[in-house]
Amino acid sequence: MRRRDREITDQNQIQDILSTCSYLHLGLSDDGMPYVVPLNYGLIKDKTDGHYIIYLHGAHEGRKLDIIKKNPNCCFTMERNVAPFEGRMACQHGMVYESIMGFGQVSIVDNPEEKMLALSALMKTQTGRYDFQFDERMVSIVTVMRIDVSELTAKQRPLPGRGE
Asked: Contact, 134 vs 118, CB < 8 A?
């Protein structure tokens, strides 16, 4: 990260950002060409080593799955509290934000119990509720993908004059 003065290192603040964004942008590489798609997500922490696991869902076929099967390496970004601000001169205009950037490996989840957990986590991110019920029939009609996050950074840009 070039701007260390904007880096977020507080794990509680990082967790808060991860838990309150509405979607993420998933970046994949399709034979050397970038492919980026916005997706809803669910988030949990692995109980054994504490790394983040991000769950995604989609159809049983399509370009995204074709790419993942060829190359599971991925990156993702998410952001919140994004708003423009003005300055006296053109170069003083900008955006305030909080953002996350991460890297990992994405895989397809086949286990029905993990798929139910994943969809519950996804609904928690989307609705704030964790009380949805899923059964094997329901999870059989959707593909669930899992990102095991290996690297994660967080950054913020406050309004000038307020911490910058």
From this structure: no
